[in-house]
Amino acid sequence: METTSRVEGVPLARRTAEGYLGAPFAWYGLDEAFTGPRWLMQVGTSADGSVQHGSTGHGETPSIKTDASGAEKERFAVVVTVAASPVRRTGDGTGVLDATTVSSAAWLAGSGLLVHTWPPSLDHATRDNWLDQQTETAFELADDLDGPEWSTLSLPVDGVPVPFHYRESEFGWVLAGSAADVHIGAYGRGMSAYGLGFAQIKDLDAYA
Length: 208
Prior knowledge:
With about 210 residues, the chain is of the alpha+beta class.
């Protein structure tokens, strides 16, 4: 996916909400069964500035964990919404945007979890190399959703059961599926993925 992520400045909540409102697709988050804090994260745009994907957070704001111990004490789930799009030309006609698939959502979720991960054996100088390697691994895993690293589970989306691809690691879990005109990815730790449900966000003010 040839997109860039951006955070919409200060004040963070209001201006980020403005970025989300520019999307031509619906955003998804955890359904009403989740009663904890909700917050906006960031949107990803294409070269022509159109919104292609974005994330919403639920629970505690995730921090970098240097090892798996204590990770379960931090409870959060991030939902990634990706516009379902075919191969298409950029708005200025100078290039082509790749099609988005469930794998797109799986890769964005997998790489998102890595941002909040830091093995204890690494220092600041080597973490970037580790992150590059693991991001490439996440891409390869997302490209093989039928492979042995993934299992399947059914979770409700707007009250309707939807099949998701799911995998766990020592630092958290990642899942991805499709609903309506979007692909949905999610990642988290400390919260069981098996008890989650997703719903279209009707009012972004609940996250701002």
